[in-house]
Write a structure and sequence with these properties.
Layout lengths: L3 H15 L10 E2 L8 E3 L1 H9 L3 H11 L5 E7 L3 E6 L1 H13 L13 E5 L14 H16 L3 E5 L7 H13 L22 H15 L3 H16 L2 H24 L10 H5 L2 H10 L3 E4 L2 E4 L13 E4 L7 H16 L3 E7 L3 H13 L8 E7 L2 E2 L16 H15 L7 H21 L7 E2 L2 H4 L7 H17 L8 H4 L8 H11 L1 H10 L3 H21 L8 H24 L9
Parallel strand pairs: 5-6, 5-10, 10-11, 12-13
Antiparallel strand pairs: 1-2, 2-4, 3-4, 7-8, 8-9
Helix pairs in contact: 1-3, 2-3, 4-19, 6-7, 6-8, 8-9, 12-13, 14-15, 17-21, 17-22, 19-21, 19-22, 20-21, 21-22
């Protein structure tokens, strides 16, 4: 099914052809002057250069060839604009097509292609903090949008589990519990199935060990040695590492579930570790990996570079591997196991140089083919008042669960006078609070920084998550009061154009933009495009709602068409908020 702008463009292209001009000039866009028209074509301005003719003359010739009946008005404005208003019948006919399509007129383009989205990046043994919020919810939304676009979309948490933090935990745990069998090299029995620590213990042990290692060189060297022994396969240390994974992953899954963020893959840095030696040997054999000041590096400079591009360091002079080694190996592993058409990284934008080096190494070394697209989507940061990084009063990074609690508590304050039973109200506040966080974040362009404003995000009016949810709940309530069930025939209800008001037409027009909005969001991996559509649709609905007495409307034809309109708003906007990972309560 063509989008509405595509359908109109086809008619204007035909008019250009019929007038003797190239049809490519007939592209139509939504008007940037809604006070004058709904759609516009500026093609005559461009055609004038090619045909050496006044644009106003071309526009008038084309306008005379446009099909009768489809448009309510066709006007030519100087210096050569063709301004269009669609007829009510044509708009309702398009809306009927949206009802008859399971994706409301959207044409998926990703069928048969696999995409892996890396958007977790959490570290084991550490709690999620505010820095984990943006990649998690942006990545989840991108996955849902691309899945709607037909892709086999796979989310990978890609846990950090193989670095110095594990060595620090092993070292500190040994100091506290030296008699554990994991530290006895002569022990040959089975290690305990239960971990000798809880997630709360780990969240205390790691910060302590990390801080202490900065003041004691011997302690830090011991932790480095423990890390190397772990990576070399030390039996006891591998058992501790497995305990850390088990305890951490259970806690992380719970916290991600609370965010309505779900991963198909729970892969780890360590999973790619086995591939590193063969990759390095391959790069050496191709003459790409070379020793430079003791380190093994790959020169990734290109002639087109306008600024300095450092080499990608794969191995330090002491033999240790780095994040670049693991990330190169992870791409190699993903290609080997899944053969994706596309890999997307949703990571802090400050990692841009690192991933540029990694991507170039993979492409230069032939570790990935041209058939796989690599994309780095660097997300901006969420900041506190004054644009400074979000911190606690003590200067520490705020835990994510505390941020969520603060916004849910704020929503609860705003809903304090509601007569909804306490248990149900708690669940609703959780849903509305999460919507406030997610919509407040996703309505910003992913690459931009933004300020976390709890009062604005939790407001029940304006461009906010609570406002969107309240709009959907209002529609649900209206349909319930109207007694509408699944047997209602929306297509039949659109047979009459009787009494279409300006606010009603604006709402139909807003909804018709759904396929275009999702196409842009998918092509540009830009969830904020979905947010823009949602707000425009919700705002148009509320204008319509305030202008019309829906329940008391006596004309059956008009009332049935309005019911169809309500159902389309609900269906389309609910689908959009689902793409953002937001759930809708039944009442508020």
């Amino acid at each position: 099914m063509l989008t509405l702008t595509q359908s109109i463009s086809e008619k204007i292209k035909k008019a250009f052809r019929d007038a003797g001009y190239d049809e490519s000039f007939g592209q139509v866009t939504i008007s940037n002057r809604p006070d004058l028209c709904e759609f516009q074509c500026n093609g005559a301005l461009m055609a004038a250069k090619q045909y050496h003719k006044a644009p106003i003359a071309i526009a008038n010739e084309v306008a005379a060839k446009i099909e009768d009946g489809y448009f309510a008005s066709i006007e030519v404005a100087a210096p050569g604009f063709i301004n269009l208003k669609i007829a009510d019948q044509s708009l309702l006919s398009y809306a009927k097509g949206m009802f008859e399509d399971e994706k409301f007129g959207f044409e998926p383009q990703g069928a048969g292609r696999k995409v892996i989205i890396d958007y977790g990046g959490a570290n084991v043994a550490k709690p999620l903090h505010v820095g984990h919020l943006r990649p998690a919810i942006i990545g989840e939304s991108i996955k849902r949008i691309l899945s709607f676009d037909g892709y086999d979309a796979i989310g990978d948490v890609h846990l950090g589990d193989w670095g110095l933090q594990i060595g620090l935990i092993i070292t500190e745990l040994k100091r506290r519990q030296p008699d554990l069998p994991y530290y006895d090299d002569s022990f040959t029995g089975d290690y305990p199935k239960e971990a000798p620590f809880t997630i709360a213990d780990l969240e205390e042990i790691y910060p302590y060990a990390s801080k202490y290692s900065k003041t004691d060189d011997a302690y830090r060297e011991e932790a480095k040695h423990a890390t190397k022994l772990l990576q070399d396969g030390h039996r006891g240390y591998r058992a501790i590492w497995q305990h850390i994974l088990d305890v951490s992953i259970e806690d992380l899954k719970k916290n991600y579930d609370n965010l309505n963020v779900h991963f198909e893959l729970w892969k780890k840095e360590s999973d790619a570790n086995a591939y590193i030696p063969e990759i390095i040997e391959d790069l050496k054999a191709k003459g790409l990996a070379k020793i430079d000041e003791g380190a093994l590096v790959v020169d990734v400079k290109e002639e087109t570079d306008t600024k300095e591009m450092p080499p990608c360091i794969l191995q330090k002079s002491d033999g240790a591997f780095l994040y670049a080694s693991t990330d190169v190996a992870t791409i190699y592993e993903r290609k080997k196991l899944f053969d994706p058409a596309w890999i997307i990284y949703v990571v802090d934008k400050r990692q841009g140089l690192h991933f540029d080096q990694v991507f170039r190494t993979c492409k230069k070394g032939g570790l990935i083919t041209d058939s796989t697209k690599l994309t780095f989507l660097g997300n901006g940061t969420m900041n506190g008042e004054g644009g400074k990084p979000f911190k606690t009063r003590d200067g520490d990074v705020l835990r994510l669960e505390f941020l969520i609690k603060s916004i849910v508590d704020k929503v609860a304050e705003r809903m304090a006078d509601s007569d909804i039973p306490a248990d149900e109200k708690k669940k609703i506040c959780d849903m509305v609070g999460l919507a406030a966080i997610k919509y407040g974040d996703l309505s910003n362009q992913a690459t931009k920084d933004y300020i976390f404003d709890i009062d604005r995000f939790t407001a029940f009016e304006g461009n906010t998550g609570p406002y969107i949810l309240y709009t959907l709940v209002r529609i649900k309530s209206l349909l319930q009061k109207l007694g509408v069930d699944e047997s209602f025939d929306c297509g039949e209800a659109l047979g009459s154009q009787k009494g279409v008001s300006e606010s009603e037409k604006k709402l139909w027009l807003a909804l018709s933009g759904f396929p275009d909005a999702v196409r842009k969001a998918a092509d540009e991996i830009a969830p904020h495009k979905i947010c823009t559509f949602i707000y425009e649709a919700a705002d148009a609905f509320n204008s319509f709602y305030h202008d019309n007495r829906i329940i008391s409307q006596e004309d059956a034809q008009i009332k049935n068409r309005w019911i169809a309109l309500l159902k389309l708003v609900l269906g389309v906007v609910e689908k959009c908020v689902d793409m953002l990972g937001i759930k809708v309560p039944d009442r508020m």
